Amino acid sequence: MPKPEKHVFVCVQNRPDGHPRPACAQHDSTAVADEFFRQLEKRQLFSKVQVTTTGCLGPCSEGPTVLVYPEGVMYRKVTPADVGEIFDTHLVNDQPVERLLMPTMFWG
Ligand code: FES
């Protein structure tokens, strides 16, 4: 397997009802992950981009969260409709999607 140029982590953490912290899965992050996998397949970028679902990335109140390495860029409140733009702008053209960036008070 080639080393990916970009590695995308999508938080799909869930928590039981009544837990004091929110969880990305309660805000449909599995649909976000599914859309990343769908776009990866559609664009045939397997040699460049790897997508991995993950547990909590930290700033739960801002979820669904998505983290892209090697840059360490984190996105907040990502929806399935945002995924195509993340591919076009960041994963292919190396520019972060400014409107989705996690504020530095949470990450940075
Ligand atoms: S549950 Fe997703 S960042 Fe914490």
Characteristic key phrases:
globular, 108 residues, binds FE2/S2 (inorganic) cluster, alpha+beta, four-stranded mixed sheet, Glutaredoxin
Written account of the structure:
The longest helix is centred in the middle third of the chain and has 15 residues, at 29-43. The relative contact order is 0.22. The protein has one domain: Glutaredoxin (3-Layer(aba) Sandwich), CATH 3.40.30. With 108 residues, it is α+β, with helices and mostly antiparallel strands. The mean pLDDT is 97. The protein is globular. The termini are far apart. A four-stranded mixed β-sheet has the order 2-1-3-4, covered by helices on one side. Strand 1, helix 1 (29-43) and strand 2 (49-54) form a beta-alpha-beta unit. The chain has helices spanning 29-43, 83-92, and strands at residues 6-11, 49-54, 66-69, 73-75. The chain contains two helices and four strands. The protein binds FE2/S2 (inorganic) cluster. FE2/S2 (inorganic) cluster (FES) is lined by residues 11, 13, 23-24, 56-60, 63, 65.
